[in-house]
């Protein structure tokens, strides 16, 4: 019950045990086409280029940024937590000129502040996180794509922590590239990064490509003729591989593709609305239970992610001892925190397969028992009662 990775859905684990196929086997390419179709509704998009990057969620982030930006490009990063910082780290290695618009941890960045920063910075790309698990906040994204388009910028969104649990509306947001991972609310293992790419972003990426006759296909150069970018994460080449051209790039990770496909099938079988409602109910119940215990929930209620809840470690309680006791007595893992929140909050997830009423209730009772044995006094049984009452509210 941490902020990911979490338990995988049993159907996903079973799918992964199927035998391997070669990357050009017609059965395999058929599954690839299915994956493209399955992930469009999950991303809330009509984008043709909706597929997988082989690697953890960070591979999707890096593929997007290294394919969208070149050294010297101005990029505006919307930064409200640890993962915003990761975007600046990756962009720094690319050699982009990075500007940030920030919110303190526990808050999100107002749209007006982003608009003002876009006007000031004139970026080629705006990059943001949707839900930053480090702070448990979800950045509102409606209207951001319009601001970017009006300024001639492309919009990148890292939705790793929210995809499968909160609505991803790539087209309505006007996002050009959105990426995710399986190990949070999609209920799979880490190791595959779903991605969707708008036509405008695909055109931008293909135009950057500098192919000289007979020379390597990944020969992308900057204005001075210096070869740049990444081979493995070259989205132009990866699109060629996922297209009917099937130009060889890497060997598609067969078992991870089975996993990603099954994650999507489970999700669409449940229904998007039902899926988001289940995560919202779990978040509401968790929050109500923690408050009934007398604990303080972290961050701004209006922008809280539904699938991970931060809670202040009470005065005088050793957070790590409680986490260890939860694991040893109950086999339940909850998350610690990073940076300024380290030792100050726990992060308790209810993601994907774990966003279930009984798991929320078991987690609350276990936490109550462990806090009690640490000498923290709290009203007995109130958390579970409040959580049950709130689940259906
Ligand atoms: C968990 C998380 C990631 C993780 O990336 P991995 O490479 O799969 O570890 C990236 N971005 C966000 C917002 C996350 O919450």
TrEMBL record:
Cofactor: pyridoxal 5'-phosphate
Database matches in InterPro entries: Aminotrans_V_dom, PyrdxlP-dep_Trfase, PyrdxlP-dep_Trfase_major, PyrdxlP-dep_Trfase_small, SP_NH2Trfase/AEP_transaminase
Domain Aminotransferase class V: residue ranges: 27-334
SUPFAM superfamilies: PLP-dependent transferases
Entry GO MF terms: transaminase activity
Family: Belongs to the class-V pyridoxal-phosphate-dependent aminotransferase family.
Name the UniProt record assigns to this protein: Alanine--glyoxylate aminotransferase family protein
Organism: Sphingomonas immobilis
Lineage: Bacteria, Pseudomonadati, Pseudomonadota, Alphaproteobacteria, Sphingomonadales
């Amino acid at each position: 019950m941490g902020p990911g990775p979490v338990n995988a859905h049993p159907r996903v684990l079973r799918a992964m045990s199927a035998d391997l196929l070669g990357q050009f086997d017609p059965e395999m390419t058929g599954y690839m086409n299915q994956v493209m179709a399955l992930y469009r509704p999950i991303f809330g998009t009509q984008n043709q280029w909706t597929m997988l990057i082989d690697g953890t969620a960070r591979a999707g982030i890096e593929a997007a940024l290294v394919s969208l930006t070149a050294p010297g490009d101005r990029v505006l990063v919307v930064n409200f937590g640890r993962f915003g910082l990761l975007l600046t780290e990756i962009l720094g290695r690319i050699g982009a000129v990075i500007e940030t618009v920030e919110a303190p941890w526990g808050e999100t960045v107002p749209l007006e502040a982003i608009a003002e920063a876009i006007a000031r910075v004139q970026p080629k790309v705006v990059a943001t996180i949707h839900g930053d698990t480090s702070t448990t906040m979800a950045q509102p994204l409606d209207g951001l794509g319009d601001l970017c388009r009006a300024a001639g910028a492309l919009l990148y969104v890292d939705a790793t922590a929210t995809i499968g649990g909160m609505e991803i509306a790539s087209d309505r947001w006007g996002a050009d590239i959105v990426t995710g991972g399986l190990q949070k609310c999609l209920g799979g293992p880490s190791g595959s990064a779903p991605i969707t790419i708008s036509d405008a972003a695909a055109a931008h990426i293909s135009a950057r490509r500098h192919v000289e006759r007979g020379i390597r296909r990944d020969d992308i150069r900057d204005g001075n003729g210096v070869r740049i970018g990444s081979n493995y994460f070259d989205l132009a080449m990866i699109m060629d591989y996922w297209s009917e051209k099937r130009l060889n790039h890497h060997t598609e990770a067969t078992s991870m593709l089975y996993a990603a496909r099954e994650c999507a099938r489970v999700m669409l079988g449940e229904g998007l609305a039902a899926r988001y409602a289940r995560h919202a109910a779990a978040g509401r119940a968790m929050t109500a239970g923690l408050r009934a215990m007398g604990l303080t929930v972290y961050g701004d209620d209006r922008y809280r992610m539904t699938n991970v809840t931060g809670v202040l470690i009470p005065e005088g309680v050793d957070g790590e001892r409680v986490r260890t006791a939860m694991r040893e007595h109950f086999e339940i893992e909850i998350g610690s925190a990073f940076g300024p929140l380290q030792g100050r909050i726990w992060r308790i997830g209810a993601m994907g397969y774990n966003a279930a009423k009984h798991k929320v209730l078991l987690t609350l009772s276990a936490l109550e028992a462990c806090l009690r044995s640490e000498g923290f006094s709290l009203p007995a049984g109130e958390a579970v009662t409040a959580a049950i009452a709130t689940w259906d509210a």
